Amino acid sequence: MKKIYFIIFVSLFICNPLFARGNGFPVPKDGQSIPVSDSDDHAYLYTSISLSDIEVFYQHEFQDDDTINWRKSDDNGFIIDDWGNRDWHKITVIDNGKDGIQITVQPDKWTWIIGTLVIRFIGVLIVLSILMFFIYVSGSIFKLTAKAKKADA
Amino acid sequence: MSLAEIADMLLTILHTTGFMNLGWKMPVMWLIGCIFIYLAIGKKYEPLLLLPIGFGIFIVNFPLTPLMGVTENGHRELINIFYHYGVEWEVIPCIIFLGLGAMTDLGPLIANPKSMLIGVGAQLGVFVTFTGAVLAGFTLKEAASVGIIGGADGPTTIYLTQHLAPQLLGANALAAYSYMAMVPIIQPLIMRMMTNKKERAIRMKQLRPVSKKEKILFPLIAAAIIALLVPAVIPLMGMFLLGNLMRESGVVDRLSETSQGALMNTVTIFLGVSVGATMQADKFLTWKPLFIFGIGLVDFAVCTIGGILTVKIMNIFLKDKINPLIGSAGVSAVPMAARVSQVVGQEYDKKNYLLMHAMGPNLAGIIGSAAAAGMFIAMFS
User: Fold this and answer.
1) CA-to-CA dists, residue B172 to A117, B152, B155, angstroms
2) Are B198 and B323 a contacting pair, CB within 8 Å?
3) Contact at 8 Å (CB) between A33 and A43?
4) What tens digit of pLDDT does each residue of B36-87 get?
């Protein structure tokens, strides 16, 4: 076991330089930076550009890029997911009416990377656990039925 | 006809041959193709797939060969047709799963449902590798397709890769099948490192007999649960469970035999050649396939470790201990991984028969890797 831990530790140490990533988020110029509750997120406010202008800006920015996924937001706007290896994983654009357009960029962070994987691993666990539960239940029913048949005989 | 005309004609003829269009990358690919053909014939490593894959690599890397392109009339060329309708349309992996289902006796899994958890543990490497590949510069979709290699399930790897990153199909499929073939070489080392002699000698209780009705009911329950929880993989798992239902029902022997025999063999030929033919020199000779082969090995090792560790954790809570050697069978590679558990176990206790116990995690591994693939597909939907 010690060997395994050693190999994992050394691998992490060697891979560490790969973890370094640059900065820079694709947002239109002249936005006003606004504070957000989650200090790792970056939010910008635009009062002089319309939602459609911002949509055009992003369409131009991510032209023919199949690592980008567009979704409609429930709050009058849209969400862009990055499936590539950029420094962020989500940009949310919301039209706040009079207050202007708010763009929130969620940068990749370790908590997100690990979190998303743990959730999916737990997802696999849940699927197989439910299947296991049903096998137990059906197995018990079959065993009881067999016992009852034996008793009748 | 003048001498100049003859020379011109000869030159024209020469230009229609492959000689004038050869590049240095092509012989490299011939060599790679021949290595896989050698592994299939000489070493008997997964010959059913590595042989057609190797030949596909070999033949497609000759210049001007009308195999993977499109004709002037817009028709697909021979192997491109197999690839388009078989792999791109995701038909062949599902048909192979139909055959696998028809071949598989799920009794050991039904008799010991705890095996399901080992199948989950053995998916650990899939998620670890996903992170590693992202850090190395792969896109999230590519990383997900590389990660699934550790699940040691060829059709699932092909299915997911075709879905998310078709440009990596050749490298991923080759890595998956190569490591599946090398299960008897890779796993015993890890199994010995992760266990002590006392653990290796654990004898397990004999599995209870499973009635035919239970075996018929299982595909229906499993299909319903998987369809509800991870609908993205139901084409794959649905076909697997249909194959199994045909087998267990006992009323459609002809269909069951065709699925696991002629049909599966036919699509295996098309799958192997198509996958091999995707490995054209210009696309294949980059750093990514090399990285995939490297990280694929780590992936496979972590999956094996994950399975064994899961058994060890389960043993803390269980009265009837499980032999941790069956944990390695949680990677799906059926039935090779289960056989390895049996062989390594018998090195320490000749009367310890682990094969049927190891089949449980082995079968859970198929479902686990398909579930992991479903999670990834859902992630990008």
Assistant:
1) 20, 11, 11
2) no
3) yes
4) 999 999 999 889 999 999 999 999 999 989 999 999 899 999 999 999 999 9
Could you report the predicted ipTM of this complex, rounded to two decimals? 0.85
DSSP class of residue B87 equals I
- Asked if the Cβ–Cβ distance from B139 to A85 is below 8 Å, we say yes
Tokens of A115: 């979190």
Give the model's confidence band at A20: pLDDT under 50 very low, under 70 low, under 90 confident, else very high. very low
Length of chain A in residues, anyone? 153
Contacting residues for B266 by C-beta, under 8 A, at least 6 apart: none
User: Can you name the residues that pair with A80 across neighbouring β-strands?
Assistant: A70, A91
Window 356-375 of B, Cβ < 8 Å to A: 364, 367-368, 371-372, 374-375
Query: Tokens representing B39?
Result: 């592994």
Nearest to B183 by CA among B353, B292, B307: B307
CB neighbour burial string for B64-85, b if at least 16 within 10 angstroms, e if fewer: eeebbeeeeeeebbebbebbee
- The residues spanned by each domain of chain B are 77-379
Q: Are B324 and B194 in contact (CB under 8 A)?
A: yes
Q: How many whole angstroms separate alpha carbon B184 and alpha carbon B245?
A: 31
Residues of B in contact with A126 (CB under 8 A): 229
B226 touches chain A (CB under 8 A): yes
